[in-house]
């Protein structure tokens, strides 16, 4: 029997279409980014993030550093070079990867042969494939402590912050959040992701031949 959970507090937030007013190079007026900042500042214990693209400006990195200094533990899962479908976006992240690590956050990069995603394939399908498919991350999810879950379209990059019309649902529920957080942490385990350090990144894990 499946438990039905009723949630009393859910918010929906979206940017105004055309928030790039063309008066400035990167536009602006991001309601979604402002809300994410507000929620992140409420964290007392942890922030867990999944994002396919991770391009942080100097100002973004300073904000992360401030949150870490307050005692919050921040973990981010993003695509590796081997699992990424957008090399231009990856290069923006790659240039600043060490600077991101300097903020004190933990970074994990999604494996293209991630074990947990293989479970969605039937044995019959898996056995007929000539090779293991490349899996990529496209979820945009964040949890704040064990109480708040954010699911939406926002990538942690300047396009989402300044140009694109983004939207997200904010769920205030310990039960939902603990379940979502557990799943996100599972995808950061060693069989599903590589942890990036100043001494290691998985760029060399790209498969060069089919």
TrEMBL record:
Gene3D superfamilies: Endonuclease Chain A
Native species: Vibrio spartinae
InterPro entries in UniProt: PLD-like_dom, PLipase_D/transphosphatidylase
Record-listed E.C. numbers: 2.7.8.-
Superkingdom, taxonomy of origin: Bacteria
Protein name: Cardiolipin synthase
One Pfam entry name: PLDc_2
SUPFAM superfamilies listed in its UniProt record: Phospholipase D/nuclease
Domain PLD phosphodiesterase: 137-160
Sorted UniProt keywords: Transferase
Enzyme class per UniProt: transferase
